[in-house]
Design goal:
Shape: globular
Strand content: 15-25%
Helix content: 40-55%
CATH architecture of the largest domain: Sandwich
Mean pLDDT: 84
Largest sheet: 4 strands, antiparallel
Number of domains: 2
Strand order of the largest sheet: 1-8-3-6
Number of helices: 6
Radius of gyration: 19 Å
Oligomer: single chain
Order of helices and strands: HHHHEEEEEEEEHH
Low-confidence stretches: none
CATH topology of the largest domain: Jelly Rolls
């Protein structure tokens, strides 16, 4: 991050959003633990590098990037900055109405009120948001695939962690279904 941006209050803003970041990290840890662990490894590796220590101590999200989108509709699109198995997280806030989120590849269209949190693989799921009435801000969190790679965190390591998680979940489901008594 450029010093000028850092000096303009970015660090204060990051600390002011500490609780929100903790909630988002916790949600991701539950819904996608492999990806969460991969992000933690990447962030911790960045903390070890001399050129990034000051910035990363205030960047508490496991995501490597965040974009603020204010008062605009978002045409249907895909996000090719991330890998297929990763989730982007979208948090929408403000005082607005009449917004709708659409995911045409899933046949999904729904109201998109303030306080909505969406986690999706933006790489494979096309999505967009209609215009709204009022003031809307969307915080879009994502993992920029180049960051973990540049700090030596292998994508294959991240994929292995994700596969291990899904293998454990499947084994638990199988174990539970085998232990269900017949009625």
């Amino acid at each position: 991050m450029q010093d000028r941006a850092w000096d303009s209050g970015v660090e204060d803003w990051l600390w002011a959003t500490l609780e929100t970041t903790a909630v988002l990290n916790s949600i991701l840890q539950v819904i996608h633990p492999g990806f969460f662990t991969y992000g933690v490894l990447s962030r911790n590796r960045l903390r070890e590098l001399d050129g990034h220590k000051d910035v990363v101590k205030s960047w508490l999200s496991i995501y490597t990037a965040m974009v603020v989108i204010a008062n605009r509709d978002m045409p249907i699109h895909q996000d090719h900055h991330c890998y297929v198995g990763w989730y982007d997280m979208l948090a929408s806030v403000g005082c607005y109405s009449q917004a709708e989120m659409e995911m045409p590849s899933l046949g999904f269209r729904s109201s998109y009120p303030p306080g909505t949190l969406s986690a999706l693989s933006g790489h494979i799921i096309s999505h967009g948001v209609s215009p709204c009435v009022g003031e809307r801000v969307c915080y879009a969190y994502f993992m920029h695939h180049k960051v973990p790679h540049r700090v030596g965190i292998s994508m294959s390591h991240g994929l292995r962690m994700m596969a291990d998680h899904y293998d454990r979940v499947q084994a638990e489901r199988t174990s539970k279904s085998n232990n269900v008594p017949n009625v």
